[in-house]
Amino acid sequence: MTVDITGTGAVTCVGATAQALWQAALSERSGIRGGVGEIETPSVRSKAVYLATEAIKQAMSNAGWTELHADDGLILATTTGQIPVWDKALVRFLKNQIDEKTFQQDFSAQPLGSLVDEIAAVLHFNGPSQLITTACSASTQALALAAMWLKTGRVKRVLVGGAEVLCDLTVQGFKSLQLLSPTPTMPFDEARQGINLSEGAGFLTLELNSSKALAHLSGHGMSTDAFHMTSPHPEGRGCFEAMSAALKSARLSPGDISWIHAHGTGSRHNDAAEGTAINQLFGESQPFTTSTKWVHGHALGASGAIETILCVEALKHQTILKTGGLKNADPQIPVKHAKENTQAELTHVMKNTLGFGGANAAIVISRAGAVK
Amino acid sequence: MRAPSVYVIGTGTTRGKDLRHLLTTAEFRKATRNMAMAYLSIEEALASCPQAKESPQTGFVLGTSHGEFGATRDFLVALADTGVARPLLFQNSLHNSTLGFLSLKLKVTGPAITASNHHFTGENALETAMLLLQDGQCQYCIVTGVDTLVPDPVGGSAASLLLANDDGLNASQAQPLGVLDHLECVRKPTAGISSTQLHDDYYESDAIEQLVYAIRSGKTSLELPKPDASVSKMRWRKP
Question: What is the CA radius of gyration of chain B?
Answer without folding.
Answer: 18
